[in-house]
Amino acid sequence: MATSCPSVDYWRWAPEIDIISNDHYLTASRLDAHVMLAMDADFTRSLAAGRPWVLMEHSPSAVNWQPRNIAKRPGELARNSMSHLARGADAIMFFQFRASRFGAEKFHSAMLPHAGRSSRVWNEVVELGELAGHLSELRGSRVEASVAVVWSTESFWAQELEWRPSVDLSHRERLEAFYSELWKLGVTVDFVHPGADLLGYHAVFAPALYLLDEASAANLRAYVEGGGVLAVSYFSGIVDEFDAVPAGPFPGRLREVLGLSIEEFQPLREGERVAVTGGSSGSVWTDEIVLDGAEPVEHYIDGPAAGLPAFTRNALGDGSAWYVSTKLDGSALGSFIDDVLTDAGLTVVPPPTGLERVIRVADDGTRFLVAINHAEADVVIDAVGTDLATGEATDAATLVPAGATRVIRLDG
Amino acid sequence: MATSCPSVDYWRWAPEIDIISNDHYLTASRLDAHVMLAMDADFTRSLAAGRPWVLMEHSPSAVNWQPRNIAKRPGELARNSMSHLARGADAIMFFQFRASRFGAEKFHSAMLPHAGRSSRVWNEVVELGELAGHLSELRGSRVEASVAVVWSTESFWAQELEWRPSVDLSHRERLEAFYSELWKLGVTVDFVHPGADLLGYHAVFAPALYLLDEASAANLRAYVEGGGVLAVSYFSGIVDEFDAVPAGPFPGRLREVLGLSIEEFQPLREGERVAVTGGSSGSVWTDEIVLDGAEPVEHYIDGPAAGLPAFTRNALGDGSAWYVSTKLDGSALGSFIDDVLTDAGLTVVPPPTGLERVIRVADDGTRFLVAINHAEADVVIDAVGTDLATGEATDAATLVPAGATRVIRLDG
Amino acid sequence: MATSCPSVDYWRWAPEIDIISNDHYLTASRLDAHVMLAMDADFTRSLAAGRPWVLMEHSPSAVNWQPRNIAKRPGELARNSMSHLARGADAIMFFQFRASRFGAEKFHSAMLPHAGRSSRVWNEVVELGELAGHLSELRGSRVEASVAVVWSTESFWAQELEWRPSVDLSHRERLEAFYSELWKLGVTVDFVHPGADLLGYHAVFAPALYLLDEASAANLRAYVEGGGVLAVSYFSGIVDEFDAVPAGPFPGRLREVLGLSIEEFQPLREGERVAVTGGSSGSVWTDEIVLDGAEPVEHYIDGPAAGLPAFTRNALGDGSAWYVSTKLDGSALGSFIDDVLTDAGLTVVPPPTGLERVIRVADDGTRFLVAINHAEADVVIDAVGTDLATGEATDAATLVPAGATRVIRLDG
Hints:
Mean pLDDT of chain A: 96
Shape of chain A: globular
Number of strands of chain A: 22
CATH class of the largest domain in chain A: Alpha Beta
Oligomer: homotrimer
């Protein structure tokens, strides 16, 4: 299952089938391939409604169909596997057992490579098997997530139609951008359909929710009125489920929950950046926002919407709805997300760079921490419990060496 | 009507029809879109043989089919409209009245946008209608132009054929380059077929006149012998109307009027620049020129034609014919054009940057000045007369604020 | 005959035909077009098994089908012709006699251009004809070469198949790179099939010999054991003649002769460079090498194979086999090649920059030196004999002016 523009709506398909599985291959050219892996794993678990799922295929090392098929670094095979496990996979399988001497896949990596059983890859596979033997307690446990990201397959499709205001608009790009900053903040998320039950989540992010049907719009509003915190990015709420613009100004069915309307889209030129108060800057897009209840949070300093609001917050019922009208990147987006999470009462302490931390909870309440150190420096974590691989006790200063993984049954 | 490589020869079509009209849309990514608008308007008027014409469509703000559909800035809707009017349009219409909620054009701007009657666009449309109500005196007046630019549809077509000496050759690019520098110099031009009556023009520019039939060649020669000043750029006069090379050296039927022949084309490498005496430099093309009557004006300092003439002037009869054998850009081309205009007895005083000035003359001799300030600074113009919008007198120090337009009935 | 990926295996075709000929046109955008000309001429002669061959077509100046059809510089027509002659062509013909006034080739250069008999091109053709009249002694003589480069059409084909480890792998690119550095070192080479008789060569280079059948592998091994020096670049010996990977680690049938195996390919990212001990650096590719008899010559300083061997040398029988596991460019590759040639007992004195020197030997042992100065500075060469163009004696300090050619019958 690829998570670029999907050809079927998995939200509608998933409830009809018994086992949710994924084939996952890294995009080797991306230095953040491990973050994209986490995103795909979280999406797969979300399709499974939180139940355990099967990683049907991934590769021990390089594949053979990308432009440059970079080999996995030492330990990367195990880190990838454990990240899938952390995010709910209860079965993890490789393609392929033995490297083939013939045919189109002869340069695809294998558990047993052409170089044979003396190879690093083979030995890392054996080690991973040993580790897995110690992890049976995690089977059937659920991943803990208090934040949701809206993933709308229909928005994805509709936004790919011709005659959009700007070729720089991309549903997938915004999903990845929001997810990546949440990952860096150490926040585990579920993906949700915009019409899903949102009551359990402290905050919901809706990046590029272009298409919105009436029931989903009402669902988002009810979530906010009931005390939830919603954050929406530009080019959301633009059309209904028939690809028609709701009567009146943009953003149609989101006007009331966001407390604003848009007089005119102000897309930016190729490469253009606009400055925003508070020290950030945006690209691709701006809006001419007319406030109708919302409060401005930051303003544009220059560009076609100079002087107008850039980010807004609308208090509604017991909750609030945020809007960001430009493309923020990296730490600027991370800072916006952090402000939204704070508004939702979540205090985020970002983990050390490159450290992935996910909690799985068993039916009996036992909590398991999977900690994966993707960085090249050792880190120390606070995790009082038992290391499942060794059976030894861990404490408030537990070492996770560079490149290593720990699975810890937490005390209490 | 697009003015990139046209699919019909408008010169042959226009005399057969009653009303000449144009649909015009800015190329939003070009910062000089207002200059290209003027070029297209001048070409439309030239097809109409100077008679008034109809702007059948343009847009109030953004379109929906370009890569990034940039909205028009405040006042741009009026500046665009008045530039069409200045250059001979007696009717100016928008596409579309009301923004559609459905279908492929739902993101195309409209006089009445999705945002409704409180919007800036709607209010600017209303203001433009009020202004237009004061301008009925201009109806039927003619645009004043003393310089012509040769536009040959057949050259356009022939130059697009395969197997040209360089992919960097472009008929359209040279037409735009010459027009743009003439615009900056404040010189209003007509476009002409190379076989047209040229007697009324002080100077005629022929950029990239690749194909030339015998009658047109004789027409250009008669123009020069009769006292006209002609300026021709490289890769002109190369083939006849059957796409055949005339016998003997290039430039075939232009050899005698230019007073030179070309021993060998010397196209340049990608990105290569050659220095020319007098401080300019060229790209794309050079020729090995053998003088045969013409005088060298400037020489190549380096490149494959180092030491040979770069620009030449041939005195012939009562006039003269200039040749420029390399691609000049920006101010270097402007300077070349200025020298040609000076040779033609025209003294050019360039307007302030971004100021467009065009004169329309009524049948009774009344002269109207349309002044459009495209810049972000106010300018003062010398225009003694009456402002048609206000009915107030104007003088030798009349203000045209940044972004504004004036239409003045000139005294005397 | 183009020498990019060939559509037939000339090695199998050539023995069946009576006359080997080539059509050769410079790639005008390449500043090293004269080196590529030499490569193609050497390949043509190699197909003819060293016998004289026919240059059926080349151009007096520009062609008309490349993006920018750069004209030949003064003297280039003769230098190109004499380079073909130096490398074994006994007949040299131009396309075309007279420039056509009509059709697709009217901008293709000709011996008699549109500009007529006063032109430089025509006069250079006449001069070349006069020179050729003095060179009949060379007819039938053979080119002297003591180094061979393996050119495997089947490797070419097989490497173009889909699903390669990296899109940056290119058989042609490595052939050109090795040839270019040998040219700069002044070393004349024959091209050979990997199964050819190699006994006469001091050194054999095999760049990107991806596919290797069993007989050819045995042939290379026998060459080394018999005292030859072989140098192989990365991604060689990977598959057999059925595109299957030989059992065991890469490089399959080259493991024993190279004295090493490869545990895993480590292709590099786009633009990535790795440092190598000894001051060079590589791109595109590295291997995790496991030595099995070979000695390391240089090591990787960084990158995915950091600390492992980068270049190796295996002493085997009376000879040796070198391996280079990364893409070296320019002088770094020249230096590697020079080390291999030194190992083969060849002392190379590189000629002055841009000087091409080739020896042809007649059946009676008479030796002819063709010296072509492609540079813009005069050079002096040591050539005691007789200049065939003038009949005058030459000596140990014979001038070859910038851009000029000398053909000298050497004394003794």
